[in-house]
Amino acid sequence: MVSAAGPCLIAHGETAPAEPRAALERAGAELLVLPLAARPEGAPEAPRPEERRGLDLTALLAELGRRECNEVLVECGATLAGAFVRDGLFDELIVYMAPTLLGRDARALLDLPLNRMADQVRLRWADVRHLGDDLRLTLAPA
């Protein structure tokens, strides 16, 4: 990641260990310290600050905007993707769907606290395409 062409910016929290930070800087990465995000409303207080929601994504996007980054591609797992959706920090969501059914213990697409129909996040179709046997769904906030 750090050896690829172009600049490399790595965001981390205040409690990130010193040795890995130093190794990343030696490899040429620029490090950006961000505050931790506030816990979601109604969530129990985490025993340690680093167990909160992770980095403040609004602060990250503000810094990227200050650096004139007009587009940000976030390719990630369910936790980070869920945080971007939960906080309304996305313009577009691209989902690749295979014609496969998985059981209840399969990894979720988004880690969101949606337990009732009333909790749903409404989206609108922007594009739907067949890619081989899969579908590429492009969705936007409703």
Summarize the structure.
This protein has 142 residues and is α+β, with helices and mostly antiparallel strands. The chain has helices spanning 18-26, 57-66, 78-86, and strands at residues 9-12, 30-33, 93-97, 123-131, 134-141. The strands form 2 sheets. A 3-stranded antiparallel beta sheet has the order 3-5-4, with no helix packed on it. A two-stranded parallel sheet has the order 1-2.
Notable traits:
3 helices; three-stranded antiparallel sheet; alpha+beta; 142 residues; two-stranded parallel ribbon
Structural features, described:
- The chain is of the alpha+beta class and 142 residues long.
- It has helices at residues 18-26, 57-66, 78-86, and strands at residues 9-12, 30-33, 93-97, 123-131, 134-141.
- The chain contains three helices and five strands; from the N terminus they run βαβααβββ.
- 20% of the residues lie in helices and 21% in strands.
Strand order of the largest sheet: 3-5-4
From the N-terminal CA to the C-terminal CA, the straight-line distance is 35 Å
Q: What's the total helix number?
A: 3
Low-confidence stretches: none
Radius of gyration: 18 Å
Question: What is the molecular shape?
Answer: globular
Number of strands: 5
How much strand content do the residues show? 15-25%
Question: What profile does the largest beta sheet have?
Answer: 3 strands, antiparallel
Q: Element order, helices and strands?
A: EHEHHEEE
Q: Helicity level, as a percent range?
A: 10-25%
